[in-house]
Amino acid sequence: MSNQLELRHFRYFLAVAEELHFRKAAERLYISQPGLSRQIKQMEGDLGIQLFERHNRKVALTKAGVYLKNELSLHLKQLDDIVNHAKLLHDGKRGQLKLGYVGSAMQQVIPDLLLKYEKEHPDVVFNLKEIDNQKQIEGLLNFKIDIGFVRLEHLPSTIKSQPVLCDAFCLVLPENHPINNATFKNIAQLKDESFILFDPEYSASYYDKVLQIFKDHGFMPTVSHLTIHASSIYKLVENNFGISIVPKSLTSSHIKGIKFIELHKIPQRTELSMVWHKDNRNPILMSFLDLT
């Protein structure tokens, strides 16, 4: 490879590969379009590889371009992480850990883990984002996050997992609903109600497990709304748009306008798992995993 190629050439290439449009990529990079085109041409010439197919105004990646995009996306992200980690060390920090999580993990699991970890490691920066299950897996595969907390049963082979919570299910009813803990016998009492459930995109395996609860009681529910946020479920239930079923870890006595009934007699449970990429080289990750 020519020693004239620099890191910026790879970043230029990635911008065009992601946009598939030279003008948009140039705007994103804050350089001129002719200048960007020259840099990409130079890169192709130095590598001896055609990276893009150009047809009139349409741009497409060649097979070599697709491969280079996938590999560079991964390795430049790792390079950015290495540099950022070095900056944190310079600032007196041991490093940074990026966490993704579904909402229920923030009720108790993550706060408990962070408090425990920070007692011995007060000099670590935590970056936390609430992200749905599938996007967490994508984030782990792309090394955009270090650890995820998900409700998924099927994971890619490169993702390792460890259960951190086995959760019961609870009914969510409007506060004024005639059924309460004293009068509730089983979920078949509610077969004529409309249900508000987590969208299957949140987790297909979780959705199937909830449907199995209904099947076990001899009916399939009328699903009026689907969402990925517990707060939306609670607001809809409070306003009598339907009732719901959620993991017990999402319940709280401080939420007004609704009530919870634990379904402790059913066999179904939902697992919250901590997940990470087996090739993640963040030096903070292993010490965090040692907590659990």
Account of the protein in words:
Residues 5-62 form the HTH lysR-type domain. Belongs to the LysR transcriptional regulatory family. GO terms for molecular function: DNA binding; DNA-binding transcription factor activity. Keywords: DNA-binding, Transcription, Transcription regulation. Pfam families: HTH_1, LysR_substrate. The protein is of the alpha/beta class and 292 residues long. It has 3 domains: 7-83, Winged helix-like DNA-binding domain superfamily/Winged helix DNA-binding domain (Arc Repressor Mutant, subunit A, Orthogonal Bundle), CATH 1.10.10.10; 93-165 and 272-289, D-Maltodextrin-Binding Protein, domain 2, CATH 3.40.190; 169-268, Periplasmic binding protein-like II (D-Maltodextrin-Binding Protein, domain 2). 39% of the residues lie in helices and 24% in strands. The protein is built from 9 helices and 12 strands. The chain has helices at 7-19, 22-29, 33-47, 63-90, 109-120, 133-141, 204-216, 230-238, 283-289, and strands at residues 52-55, 58-61, 95-101, 124-130, 147-150, 159-167, 169-174, 194-198, 222-227, 243-247, 258-262, 270-277. The strands form 3 sheets. Strands 4-3-5-12-6 form a 5-stranded mixed beta sheet. α5 links the parallel β3 and β4 (124-130). α2 packs across α3. The radius of gyration is 25 Å and the shape is elongated. The mean pLDDT is 88.
